[in-house]
Model the fold of this input.
Amino acid sequence: MEDKKIPYKIYLEEGEMPKQWYNVRADMKNKPEPLLNPGTLQPMTAEELGHVFCDELVKQELDDTTAYIDIPEEIQSFYKMYRPSPLVRAYCLEQKLDTPAKIYYKFEGNNTSGSHKLNSAIAQAYYAKKQGLKGVTTETGAGQWGTALSMACSYFDLDCKVYMVKVSYEQKPFRREVMRTYGASVTPSPSETTAVGRKILQEHPGTTGSLGCAISEAVEAATSTEGYRYVLGSVLNQVLLHQSIIGLETKIALDKYGIKPDIIIGCAGGGSNLGGLVSPFMGEKLRGEADYRIIAVEPASCPSLTRGKFAYDFCDTGKVCPLAKMYTLGSGFIPSPNHAGGLRYHGMSSILSKLYDDGLMEACSVEQTAVFEAAEQFARVEGILPAPESSHAIRVAIDEAMKCKQTGEEKTIVFGLTGTGYFDMVAYEKFHNGEMNDYIPTDEDLKPGFDSLPKVDK
Amino acid sequence: MEDKKIPYKIYLEEGEMPKQWYNVRADMKNKPEPLLNPGTLQPMTAEELGHVFCDELVKQELDDTTAYIDIPEEIQSFYKMYRPSPLVRAYCLEQKLDTPAKIYYKFEGNNTSGSHKLNSAIAQAYYAKKQGLKGVTTETGAGQWGTALSMACSYFDLDCKVYMVKVSYEQKPFRREVMRTYGASVTPSPSETTAVGRKILQEHPGTTGSLGCAISEAVEAATSTEGYRYVLGSVLNQVLLHQSIIGLETKIALDKYGIKPDIIIGCAGGGSNLGGLVSPFMGEKLRGEADYRIIAVEPASCPSLTRGKFAYDFCDTGKVCPLAKMYTLGSGFIPSPNHAGGLRYHGMSSILSKLYDDGLMEACSVEQTAVFEAAEQFARVEGILPAPESSHAIRVAIDEAMKCKQTGEEKTIVFGLTGTGYFDMVAYEKFHNGEMNDYIPTDEDLKPGFDSLPKVDK
Done:
């Protein structure tokens, strides 16, 4: 009963907020492999990366020794609009499960972009503005990242060009309109506005587009237009650095009440949320100061960590971006169209891939009907309607809590609730109507992806 | 600069949270008029009301003398899941407007129902559960209230039957699916499940329904089913009582920093948000302890306070509910279908109507394109995507702040930001595409509504 003193929601005061990001690479003995130039297969230089990304972000991308990097004041100011995010004690869920486990979740959905993506969007927009750029380009699928970037660019009065996969542009008009509310120009991809778009339209008339194609258009638009750079919402080292704010806030809130987690769980697509959440805890683990079980949860239909290969691969299906060493299903891998739960990226952040390969974290995969069951159960007792992506972590948190019920162990479980599901009701509808199927790719299904891996002697 | 010490967001600690609701009627010298039985035209008795509403809620509805009513512990526990809501200092908006005014807003949108409606839904569900009922029925238009009630019923394991206007059920499937996620049964209205529904379907085959019809069906379903009662999300005295939590939290937060507002602004449909926000401030005004300008903002297309009559009228267009003395356009008034901004109710809470008639508050009306301009301006600097309803208050807050810019006055403005606009993107899309029209009804347009007023000698 003593721990009833812990409030439902722990909010940090403004004075308690982190003022520096934490760069987990600084504490890794085995550093993640560098990005390679796809032409020369040599590590990308700062100069080469500077054609695509802002200078300061290139620095962050390549810096694997500085542990703490100051968060610029302007970004701290913007954070005040929607941060700190609450660390919530899931009292109601614990009671419903009748488990001795103590469950906490860090909720990143209380902002208009609806997810943690805003944490990196604002940082990338800030550095673009500081460099005197006119604007940035990016791609978006369902629109979560595009929305976050639109908000960030609107704040810094920066032009924002979003290439949105055409099928989403047409079938998911709501996120498109949110982006337009924030002043972004949203172009359905493939489009006539880029050479690569025109080529694809000529070769595949009537195509509804793909994320890979949208990336290629966004990169071309950035590199061919004076005063523009390209920005990406996941996978990159710089993104995990910005997202470390999630884990840092979590750790301060837990420390404040003397709580030590046993298990930390996060969903993993490209790795931005998981990497951000676990960074400071992983740091302690790397330095030998503490030990935690850290679990990455991915969809069974897109199992990059649990069934992928640790290899150099293209970051995009259009093969215009540098090569990264990561757990990957191959850039040619296409997730089943009936997969409704997001987290469709073929690869995984190089940092997380390395940590996983070194045995410092676990990974598991879950099927989508079980994910939506957990989502609904969570919504009904905790009030928040979770995004399908986030619900992967809920699934495993519930599973771990139920194991505690069997063993009687009072473990402390912390998971990342990355966002809300307001724009995912089509998936929920499928689930309610019993129209949702599970899909686990066979080894045969995975073969074309693996065959698409580039030959790199590394 | 001194006031920079005031944080962006003021959150109350759990120990600072109000433990009692405030009943503004207790301090009103001129009490609001009682509900009348539409048959006898006599004041409704507790017994009569008990057929429709829970006993405890009937008590609250009729009690105009008790100033403070304890919030049951169970409701306080639920509040912890999403309250306190933040009181936000709109530093970014102030800067953008370059105004000396200080702007604060109380943001009620950080819960899955997306609005303040949850404050009363949880109270009404609690009393239904306490009375040992099986469930409750209600109607919903676009679905905000229905969603809130579904969440509340799910928490107390109570059956929830929602009659949803058929056109919304079909065209706005997302809110319907949110309600289903929380276990509610959602029936398109008119339906075959009630006598009144069958009658309407026979007389008007192919009708897409109306809120009035949905109310009639919900009331019939409640009164004809053992163990059920009907609940309503606005207008009633009990709802304003529950919503006083908004104003009480606001006042505690302001007092904590020694802030005294000059102007308090809220949007007004049935009056639940405005009534809740202003109650404690109005109490001070009624007791002669302080003075505030209090402004109700309504859409020019549905101007019950600014152009309605202060008269007894039916609360529903189906004319099955008691009569209330209120500012009304007549239950036969139908707002223009091109009105996208919500707040379509023909009448106004009896409490607010009385206060307005006694000159204790002001009212003004605004046109919808101006409302969406304010919404977009607000979203771009403050981050939050506001509901169209809430944006009525934003419009007038900005207008008042701009007056301060002209006069140089450093007024403190507080407004209610009732909710988020995630499910209103169709309206935003119309606005972005320049397809939104303003509509101000002519006196001729208002005539059928006024002609529908019942003849009551009071």
Notes: The first helix of chain A runs from residue 46 to 50. Chain A is about 40% helix and 15% strand.
